[in-house]
Write a sequence for this structure.
């Protein structure tokens, strides 16, 4: 009994001490308390992803999202506005419905690709055709009239709909290897066949449209069960749809076997002319150094095959919730804490690079930028982005983060400057210390990134909550730091290919009139 008592007492003292040493700062303590006890993540996620939906640049939903974010910030007492940086082709997705109507009826799993012209509400019914074996550009030209009045299937028929890890688990090693070799050869042959037409995978589409095809049927498999990547269309007058691998390969086999399958496609979309594009910017003004900035950053736009839950709904939620908490527990920061919800990241970091170009006075006075944009997972790595002294300040800030969160994070200093990928690169290119809070994958690349399965159910709220706490504490520490962060850059290594020393990335020129 006695022994046990002492042991318990020891544990008690020890744990109080460690909690005390780590959480003695009331702001840091309150950040966690608010994040755990009054989380708004689920309701924010529901409103943004279920109610507003995907946020493709140029769509009314993107605008709705901007207006929703401004209203949310105002309801938390944070000043916010939408800042226009350009314009884009306006487009609204409508109903897509794709059915096989011959030789039997089956509703197919597919969707219209972004920005392309739709059909009437009655839709289009036509037979499918696949690309032939092409000898050369002359024979291809002779074949082209065959597409008139037909839907053309332009994706290779995948040999398997099972992801590789599934093969690895269940196939014999010989059969897994055989599948991979055959698939590689088939893919190479497919590319070479198209090349012999005188076109490539992209430029062949206008040629088919010109020749009188009634629509393009594509299938961009994402290498996971039932998952396709959904991007924009390349047609000007006819609809383009993506059909999931399962249904696509079935149709393809039917064409090959002479079954002459027909599909009925309804793809109602609206061309909305030209629309303005925005970034949503909100800020909590600094009291001591209002002209120095700590920036929370996450792009707001998405592709629209799913609802953009992990790209970048989760990054958006992290930054919004961190701002809400900071306003509540740290309402008078030393430096200004600004959040940027960027537009059109997906088409080339357009919103953030416009912000960098339009606000040199802010960019020159950035203490730090924290960007998150790779899914729902907890942050597991932070790279010093090539700033020589980042080790010093970033380590100092990270020490304030509770052990349970910090222990997962691997840091690399001084690291290297981001040259793209996400909005932190726009700031790094301008010489501002900008860091990516890089998260654990949760099968991001094959299952959610730019896919039709990027939806609310994939969010792992515990991990998102952990990222909120991390971000809020980093913002607090960066704001309170006694000194301004150093921007001293590493000397970059020699490029193996050119034999010359690599140079720091330069700011990109944003696309300010997109899709027109
Ligand atoms: Zn993204």
């Amino acid at each position: 009994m006695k022994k046990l008592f002492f042991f318990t007492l020891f544990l008690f003292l020890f744990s109080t001490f460690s909690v005390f040493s780590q959480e003695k700062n009331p702001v840091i303590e309150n950040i966690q308390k608010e994040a755990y006890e009054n989380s708004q993540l689920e309701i924010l996620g529901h409103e943004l992803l279920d109610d507003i939906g995907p946020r493709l640049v140029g769509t009314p939903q993107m605008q709705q999202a901007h207006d929703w974010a401004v209203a949310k910030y105002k309801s938390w007492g944070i000043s916010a506005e939408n800042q226009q940086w350009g314009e884009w082709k306006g487009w609204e997705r409508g109903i897509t419905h794709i059915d096989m109507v011959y030789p039997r009826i089956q509703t197919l799993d597919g969707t219209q690709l972004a920005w392309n012209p739709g059909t009437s509400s009655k839709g289009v019914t036509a037979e499918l055709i696949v690309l032939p074996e092409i000898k050369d550009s002359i024979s291809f030209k002779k074949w082209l009239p065959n597409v008139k009045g037909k839907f053309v299937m332009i994706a290779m028929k995948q040999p398997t709909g099972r992801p590789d890890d599934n093969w690895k688990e269940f196939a014999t090693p010989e059969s897994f290897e055989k599948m991979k070799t055959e698939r590689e050869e088939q893919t190479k042959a497919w590319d070479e066949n198209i090349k012999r037409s005188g076109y490539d995978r992209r430029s062949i589409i206008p040629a088919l449209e010109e020749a009188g095809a009634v629509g393009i049927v594509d299938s961009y498999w994402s290498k996971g069960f039932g998952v396709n990547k959904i991007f924009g269309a390349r047609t000007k007058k006819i609809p383009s749809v993506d059909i999931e691998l399962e249904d696509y390969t079935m149709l393809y086999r039917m064409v090959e076997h002479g079954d002459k399958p027909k599909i009925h496609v309804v793809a109602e979309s609206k061309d909305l002319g030209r629309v303005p594009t925005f970034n949503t910017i909100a800020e909590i003004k600094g009291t001591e150094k209002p002209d120095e900035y700590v920036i929370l950053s996450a792009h707001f736009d998405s592709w629209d095959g799913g609802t953009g839950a992990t790209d970048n709904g989760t990054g958006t939620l992290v930054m919004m919730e961190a701002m809400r908490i900071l306003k509540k527990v740290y309402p008078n920061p030393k430096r200004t804490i600004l959040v940027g919800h960027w537009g059109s990241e997906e088409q080339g970091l357009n919103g953030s690079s416009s912000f960098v170009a339009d606000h040199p006075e802010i960019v020159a006075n950035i203490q730090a930028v924290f960007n998150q944009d790779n899914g729902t997972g907890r942050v597991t790595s932070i790279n010093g982005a090539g700033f020589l002294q980042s080790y010093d300040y970033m380590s100092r800030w990270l020490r304030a983060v509770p052990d349970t969160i910090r222990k997962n994070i691997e840091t690399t200093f001084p690291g290297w400057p981001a040259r793209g990928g996400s909005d932190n690169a726009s700031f790094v290119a301008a010489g501002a210390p900008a860091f990516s809070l890089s998260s654990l994958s949760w099968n991001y690349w094959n299952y959610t990134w730019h896919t039709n399965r990027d939806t609310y159910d994939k969010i792992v709220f515990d991990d998102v909550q952990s990222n909120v706490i991390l971000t809020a504490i980093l913002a607090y520490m960066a704001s309170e730091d006694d000194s301004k962060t150093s921007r001293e850059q590493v000397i970059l290594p020699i490029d193996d290919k050119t034999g010359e020393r690599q140079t720091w990335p330069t700011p990109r020129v944003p696309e300010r009139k997109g899709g027109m």
